[in-house]
């Protein structure tokens, strides 16, 4: 039996890159979708927020020298592209996926309407929330916290490259150890990177637990959903 009925999975755009320098790597997206399919087969309702960093970020790369809000809208459009790719791959894998956008782009994807998203989830469809929060100066981490709270997800699953929150950067300090659980307050006092500050504050205020885990570790997503010791649980 899964430990959760409804989850919000936050994937960074970079999770789709595989070993490529940018964009979407076919084998990687297929593998991630396989893992998502396994979790839905357990009866878990899955909503997804995907980033856009593999295509465009409002604060880096090609955006340097641009008006920040304009660059951020480009970043949001990048998340729409990733959402379409993800939903297409899910539909091909036999899942039923729906993309809902926070910005009006109706010829491409339907707009985000909360009751409709809830209905899709109850019908067992996977809902992909595109275009972040729909506002510049925010990130898709914040969109994950926001949508997670709105849909009553029991947990935000933040998929990263590292398999949890460590006492120090494990790439720099070999003696660093992984926290199994840590409170929001302790993570803040110790200045540990869980997600960006706005997203962190929102989850903390809403008492929405966050699980940090590695999407590159096969089976990790399933382990998290089954309540196994995987990644780090950040709790109130
Ligand atoms: N973005 C935004 N508002 C949001 C979410 C995203 O303006 O609510 C823009 C921002 O420019 C950001 C880009 O979209 O850099 C891609 O999102 P993010 O950096 O969160 O993607 P990730 O790092 O998860 O791939």
TrEMBL record:
Q: Which residues cross the membrane?
A: none
Any one GO CC term of this protein is: cytosol
Q: Which compartment or compartments is the protein found in?
A: Cytoplasm
Its top-level enzyme class, in one word, is transferase
Q: What SUPFAM superfamilies does the record tag this protein with?
A: Carbamate kinase-like (SSF53633)
Its activity is regulated as follows: Inhibited by UTP.
Q: Which reaction is this enzyme known to catalyze?
A: UMP + ATP = UDP + ADP
Pathway connected to this protein: Pyrimidine metabolism; CTP biosynthesis via de novo pathway; UDP from UMP (UMPK route): step 1/1
Positions that bind UMP: 52, 72, 133-140
Q: Which UniProt keywords apply?
A: ATP-binding, Cytoplasm, Kinase, Nucleotide-binding, Pyrimidine biosynthesis, Transferase
**Where does it primarily localize?**
cytoplasm
**Could you confirm whether the keyword Cell cycle appears in this record?**
no
One Pfam family hit: AA_kinase
Q: Can you give the residue ranges of the Aspartate/glutamate/uridylate kinase domain?
A: 6-214
Q: How does it assemble?
A: Homohexamer.
Q: What does this protein do?
A: Catalyzes the reversible phosphorylation of UMP to UDP.
Task: Give the protein's recorded name.
Answer: Uridylate kinase
């Amino acid at each position: 039996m899964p430990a959760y009925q409804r989850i919000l999975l936050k994937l960074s755009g970079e999770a789709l890159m595989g070993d490529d320098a940018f964009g979407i790597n076919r084998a990687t997206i297929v593998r991630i979708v396989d893992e998502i399919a396994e979790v839905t087969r357990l009866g878990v309702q899955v909503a997804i927020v995907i980033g856009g960093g593999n295509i465009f970020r409002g604060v880096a790369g090609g955006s340097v020298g641009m008006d920040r809000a304009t660059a951020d809208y480009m970043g949001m459009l990048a998340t729409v592209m990733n959402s379409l790719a993800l939903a297409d791959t899910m539909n091909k894998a036999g899942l039923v996926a729906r993309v809902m956008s926070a910005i009006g782009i109706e010829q491409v994807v339907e707009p985000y309407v909360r009751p409709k998203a809830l209905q899709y989830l109850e019908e067992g469809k996977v809902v992909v929330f595109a275009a972040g929060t729909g506002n510049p100066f925010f990130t898709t981490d914040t969109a994950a916290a926001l949508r997670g709270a709105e849909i009553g997800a029991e947990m935000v699953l933040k998929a990263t490259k590292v398999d949890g929150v460590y006492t120090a950067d494990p790439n720099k300090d070999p003696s660093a150890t992984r926290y199994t659980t840590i409170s929001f307050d302790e993570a803040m006092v110790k200045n540990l990177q869980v997600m960006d500050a706005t997203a962190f504050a929102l989850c903390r205020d809403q008492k929405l637990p966050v699980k940090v885990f590695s999407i590159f570790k096969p089976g990790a997503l399933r382990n998290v959903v089954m309540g196994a010791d995987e990644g780090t649980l950040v709790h109130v």
